[in-house]
Specification:
- It contains six helices and 26 strands.
- The chain is elongated, with a radius of gyration of 29 Å.
- The longest helix has 12 residues, at about 100-115.
- A hairpin with a 2-residue loop joins strand 10 and strand 11.
- The protein has a single domain (about 1-520), classed as Porin, CATH 2.40.160.
- Helix 1 (about 5-10) packs parallel to helix 5.
- With about 525 residues, it is mainly beta.
- It is about 10% helix and about 55% strand.
- The chain has a 26-stranded mixed sheet that branches.
Length: about 525
């Protein structure tokens, strides 16, 4: 994440502008932005708070009812009903406190504008107020019910969520160009100011029914069936105000025209003409899919376990619709701003209607009625050892198949994950080392606290992006990408029959979670 964010914002504010000899930029102001970003994935962090605290390491020794989702054979280890409720509080942190991105953004802006020789005094860099974390309260739950026919489990979870909220203002610039029109030279100054508002939400809900059975006292098997429902909503509006000044070369003053002016007498509204520069994109997509999971446990001894989990996660095709509208000036060739032909004009005065200089054209971009979301399946081999009543060691080796990607209008972007190694451990801790267990002890409850931690490495063999239907599409491939992970959690008895689990920190997804487990 430390390397990703500067690159992200450098790309955002450093387009590769093509030079135009007769065009200059008088000033540039990056504006200010309030950005809120949240992401959570059980695919990265593991199901349930206890497993997440072990860094996503699956083990049947965790006594976690959330294994109804991740490891159904572990249900056969329960001899009494158990229920668990997971909660995700809204917690955000300041990205600037952990990541140095200001210099990367300034370098990107300088690089994009250097060919226009703008005085440094006329450049104002973007001001970013960024918070990452959990933007809203979330919840999940699971239950385990042993019977003489085996153990049944059920769960409601949120395996994947993504939220992004951007509010900005003050992104301003002025371009100046000129063209010979007969014997006269017309100077055109075009100033714009943009205020973006973007809200993106990806929400999922998964319902799981599972079953575990003891084939022998040492061998357990289990299966689970998942139904995943997803929804994506996009609400983006870019308020764009502009002023165009036309004057003859050598003249002190000229004619000034304002865009978005409803009283512009040159615009024939009744004929469908317009002078708006605003841009917007609104869309909503929903879909669902089925997945399944099979797992087994073998007791090597009283304290050693072998775990095996085969998981086929759902691939979801979401149906819906989107409106993506751009309003542009015929004289402004925005598509020529990004690389390509160095001789191509960005602003052509000859294409400007001097009788209607604020006239704009509405362009509706192609949109699709489908978004495909793919998540990889996996095969997990694990070994774990119970070293004490409140301590364990667990190791997982995971082989993935498939890809973590989305596809829209033949544009595909994703991450092909190859394999992962995870290690998790639980150790007892003294009750006086944390305030909550100290308080419980003073109230007469023995908290029997334990600390969980986990770490791992995940490798990816490919990142790809581009339009797959085009010949020579923009496809980027990077081999041997390593994604490290780390997690820290703790557990303690809240009162007889109820155990509390806290996920204090994780590098892969949610910042903090807590759960309450009740043993009937």
């Amino acid at each position: 994440m430390k390397k990703m964010l500067p690159v992200l914002f450098a790309c955002l504010f450093s387009v590769n502008l093509s030079a135009q000899e007769d065009l200059s930029i008088a000033y540039f102001a990056g504006g200010s932005y309030k950005i809120r970003f949240g992401f959570d994935s059980a695919f990265l962090g593991g199901p349930g708070v206890r497993t997440a605290g072990l860094g996503g390491t699956l083990t049947s020794l965790s006594n976690d009812a959330a294994m109804a989702v991740g490891h159904p054979a572990a249900l056969a280890e329960f001899d009494r009903p158990v229920s668990v409720l997971n909660m995700t509080p809204p917690v955000m942190f300041n990205a600037a406190s952990l990541i140095e991105m200001d210099q990367a953004i300034q370098d990107g802006v300088d690089s994009a504008l250097e060919q226009y020789n703008i005085p440094q005094s006329e450049i104002t860099y973007p001001d970013l107020n960024i918070r990452f974390g959990q933007t809203a309260v979330g919840g999940a739950g699971a239950g385990v019910m042993p019977s003489r026919f085996g153990t049944f489990g059920f769960a409601i979870s949120q395996p994947l969520s993504l939220t992004m909220d951007v509010v900005g203002s003050g992104l301003s610039t002025m371009i100046e160009t000129s063209k010979d029109l007969g014997d006269a030279v017309t100077i055109v100054q075009f100033a714009t100011r943009m205020s973006p508002t973007v809200k993106l939400n990806l929400y999922s809900r998964e319902f799981t029914a599972s079953y575990g059975y003891s084939v022998t006292p040492r061998f357990k098997v289990g299966a689970a069936l998942d139904w995943l429902s997803t929804r994506v909503d996009l609400n983006a509006f870019f308020k764009l105000d502009g002023i165009m000044l036309l004057r003859q070369e050598g003249a002190i003053s000229g004619l000034e025209y304002a865009f978005n002016d409803p009283y512009d007498e040159s615009i024939r509204w009744q004929d469908g003409e317009q002078n708006t520069l605003d841009q917007w994109a609104y869309g909503s997509y929903t879909g669902s899919g089925w997945g399944f999971r099979f797992s087994s446990i073998f007791h090597l001894s009283r304290s050693w376990r072998l775990d095996f989990v085969f998981s086929k996660t759902p691939n979801v095709t979401m149906a819906g619709e989107m409106e993506f509208v751009q309003n542009k000036i015929p004289a402004l060739q925005a598509e020529n701003m990004f690389g390509g032909d160095e001789n191509a004009s960005i602003f052509s005065v000859t294409d400007l209607n001097l009788a209607k200089p604020t006239l704009t054209q509405r362009f509706e971009n192609p949109t699709g009625d489908r978004i495909t979301l793919k998540m990889p399946g996996s095969i997990t081999f694990g070994i774990s050892k119970r070293t004490g009543s409140r301590s364990l060691l667990a190791l997982n080796v995971v082989q993935y198949f498939g890809e973590f990607s989305y596809q829209y209008l033949n544009y595909v972007q994703g991450l092909k994950i190859k394999n992962a190694v995870r290690f998790g451990a639980e150790v007892p801790v003294a009750w006086f080392l944390s305030p909550e267990t100290l308080l419980l002890k003073l109230l007469g409850v023995d908290p029997k606290a334990s600390l969980r931690f986990g770490f791992g490495l995940m490798t990816a063999s490919e990142i790809k992006s581009g339009f797959s239907y085009q010949s020579g599409a923009n496809v980027n491939t990077r081999q041997a990408i390593v994604l490290p992970s780390f997690a820290l959690g703790k557990s303690f008895i809240l009162f007889p029959g109820v155990k509390a689990d806290l996920l204090l920190f994780t590098t892969t997804a949610t910042l903090m979670k807590f759960s309450f487990t009740y043993n009937f």
